[in-house]
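User: Show me a protein chain along with its predicted structure.
Assistant: Here is one chain, sequence first, then structure tokens.
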Amino acid sequence: MSYVIFDCTQLITINTRTEINLQYLLEPLGELNLKLVTSESIPNKKKVYLEEYLLNHLFELLNDEFLGYFEDWKNYDDAPEAITKFALIIKNIALQNNIDTLRLFLINHASENKQEDTITQVDVSPDSIMKGLFHFSCFGDGGSMLVLTVRNN
């Protein structure tokens, strides 16, 4: 059994069709006390762990308590307000004309030996983000990490 290299982490990676001010676009996430950390300031161990999933732009959404809302989400139709708001903000970002693909990482823990981790990958449309997020709830199958890909086609 290997050591946990990081835990309780949310990140977002995005492919854009053209240049766009992503920090401005991601600003509404601050309403949920998610502090935006640019790629340059994200520890390298996180980038290496996620490298096969990364798109052109990467941000960490820093808040050590945020994943706790998923532990409280027992019934799909009764999501905590913070998750409902999070899903709506992500949907609004994904629907922007310049956004091609958006990928969220919700990580309970990441091990040195990645093969020990249960990684759930889900692809959804912008209208199905809540269904994708429910995989990470205590009654879902999100495991160690949920990789939620939202495509704006």
